[in-house]
């Protein structure tokens, strides 16, 4: 291999050369973004542990380094907030459900669309699925919101600690409880297995609840 040596943490027997290079490139980008906030070892540890979160259930392995980079970035942003290294005062809301494939993804899409840069939204699942519910994607596209770039993912401790509000949707006893967080439980039907027509009322209810939450947080909406 002619490229410069990869860090020891990136030398994994289960990865192809292309994946090694992609992870090295991702690590370099994250190091630039978080320069002065976190060291190389922390960044690489989060990147590789994020990779592990998706490796066992990915259907297209070529996307794994990109997913790992995106998730690691979110986790590092959360850690920076938790450790008081970066805090803008922008409220952060975490939407949780079981598979992070339907309800929580629709809530994330609506919240982000309505709040813009005035608030931050994340999502996660207790048992992340393999893909976002295609009917949920279609239902959101009907109202001009594209969630095709999202992906089912777990929640992690730093993300839970960084959230100001945690909204749960059907994850039951698996939903985490952290002291000092505001919790809301939204009792909504699971859109799994439903067609777009049946999902529209769920989408409408989610939008109503998201708008109410934004108003309570005093966040201006689009």
From TrEMBL:
BP GO terms, sorted: response to arsenic-containing substance
Q: Does the keyword Cell inner membrane apply?
A: no
Q: Which residues form the Phosphotyrosine protein phosphatase I domain?
A: 91-216
InterPro entries, per database record:
Phosphatase-like_N, Ptyr_pPase, Ptyr_pPase_sf
KW Ribosomal protein (keyword) present: no
Identify the keywords attached in UniProt to this record, alphabetized.
Arsenical resistance
Top-level lineage group: Bacteria
* Protein name (database record): Arsenate reductase ArsC
**Where does this protein come from, organism-wise?**
Nocardia speluncae
């Amino acid at each position: 291999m002619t490229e410069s040596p990869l860090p020891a943490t990136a030398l994994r027997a289960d990865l192809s050369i292309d994946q090694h290079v992609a992870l090295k490139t991702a690590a370099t980008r994250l190091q630039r973004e978080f320069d002065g906030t976190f060291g190389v070892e922390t960044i690489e540890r989060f990147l590789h542990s994020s990779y592990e979160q998706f490796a066992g259930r990915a259907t297209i392995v070529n996307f794994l380094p990109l997913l790992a980079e995106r998730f690691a970035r979110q986790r590092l942003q959360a850690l920076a907030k938790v450790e008081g290294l970066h805090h803008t005062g922008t409220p952060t809301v975490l939407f949780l459900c079981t598979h992070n494939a339907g309800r929580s993804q629709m809530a994330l899409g609506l919240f982000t669309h309505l709040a813009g840069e005035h608030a931050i939204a994340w999502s996660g699942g207790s048992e992340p699925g393999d893909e976002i519910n295609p009917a949920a994607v279609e239902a959101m596209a009907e109202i001009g919101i594209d969630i095709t770039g999202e992906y089912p993912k777990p929640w992690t401790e730093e993300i839970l600690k960084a959230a100001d509000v945690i909204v749960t949707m059907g994850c039951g006893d698996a939903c985490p409880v952290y002291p000092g967080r505001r919790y809301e439980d939204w009792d909504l039907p699971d859109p799994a297995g439903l067609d777009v027509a049946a999902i529209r009322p769920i989408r409408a209810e989610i939008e109503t609840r998201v708008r109410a939450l934004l108003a309570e947080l005093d966040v201006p909406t689009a």
